[in-house]
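Entry 14. Ran structure prediction on the chain below.
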Amino acid sequence: MKTQGILYYIGALIFGGLGVLTFLQLEKASYKIEAGTFIIISALLYYGMVTLYYRSRKNTFLTVNLVLAILALGGIFFNHVLFGTH
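Output, structure tokens:
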């Protein structure tokens, strides 16, 4: 089996398990929708990155990873500006 196929199966297990746990543990429908949306977006990013790694040049993959890392760090430090405070 190819490494790409193994990564797809691992992703299916991870995100499938997260989906099952989310819908078993959360009570409110709004929480389930929010968590489900996050899981779906994360799964799409994961599968997109695996596909990008195997179908394109490594520089493109590293550039996309760098952009995602910068966005994640920006989200951490500017969370209060983006979403307000409690």
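The chain has a mean pLDDT of 89. Will compare against last week's run tomorrow.
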